[in-house]
Amino acid sequence: MIIFKLLELFWAFFKIGAFTFGGGLAMLKLAQDVVLEKGWLQPDQIVNFVALSESTPGPFAINMATYVGADEQGFKGALFATLGVVLPSFIVILIVAHFYKQFQNSHIVKGLMTGLKPTAIGLIASAVISMGITVFFPDGFTTQIFSTQQFYISIAIFAISLFLVFFKKLKIPPVLIICISAVLGIAAGYIFDIPLA
Fold first, then answer.
1. CA distance readout (Å), 159 to 98, 99, 127, 182
2. pLDDT of 59-93, one tens digit each?
3. 50: Cβ–Cβ under 8 A, 6 or more apart, which residues?
């Protein structure tokens, strides 16, 4: 029944919203696990989705929930999945706002945040490694990968992006770095006639 599918979307994305701390990219690992387990997206689709999602307005998790929901159950699916992912944050921020002054100097709250911050970094790192493997070694780690143009083009675009991000004197906005990377990818696709997905 459609209602069960809608509730499944809501509950899956509610868990993603409720059990990830640190914002959008910290949600990536849990979101990745959930959508793969449910068969809603494939690993290469997730990488492509993250690339597109980070190039468009809006938080990653909301974009993913809306896309997956729409793909699975149309407008209603998009509504249920999106509501599921945003509702936990909405509830938590209402509670935090209500009790903030009372608990802002609490050792328990400070300890909680001290524990959660490195966990969020770990979740992001885990997602980066998982996506990196999918991008650079799509067919698994074999020596053949080093003989493909796609591998070296991906490495080159990655290196250029890192340089532009970390070379502070240039002060290039992230949107421009994304545009430069997209242009480089399109150019490489045409010049070498290879798929970069």
1. 45, 45, 19, 14
2. 778 888 888 999 899 999 999 999 999 998 888 88
3. 28, 60, 131
d(CA 18, CA 5): 20
Angle at 43 (CA atoms; ends 192, 143), nearest 5 degrees: 55
Scored b (16 or more CB within 10 A) or e, 143-181 reads eeeeeeebbebbeebeeebeebeeeeeeeeeeeebeeeb
Q: Could you list the beta-strand ranges (E) of 13-161.
A: none
**Cβ atoms < 10 Å from Cβ of 4:** 8
Tell me, what amino acid is at 172? I
Hey, what amino acid is at 160? I
Asked if 41 and 28 touch (Cβ cutoff 8 Å), the reply is no
Alpha-carbon span 115 to 97, nearest angstrom: 21
The CA-based diameter of the chain, rounded to the nearest angstrom, is: 62
Indicate whether 196 pLDDT > 50: no
Which residue, 73, 84, 89, is CA-closest to 24?
89
